[in-house]
Amino acid sequence: MASIVKHRKVNIVVLGQDEPIGEHCKPGDIAISAAADGWWTSFIGDDGAIDSYDIPYPSYQEALWAAKAAAEFGV
Question: What is the layout of strands, in order, in the sheet containing 30-35?
Answer without folding.
Answer: 3-7, 10-15, 30-35, 38-44, 50-52
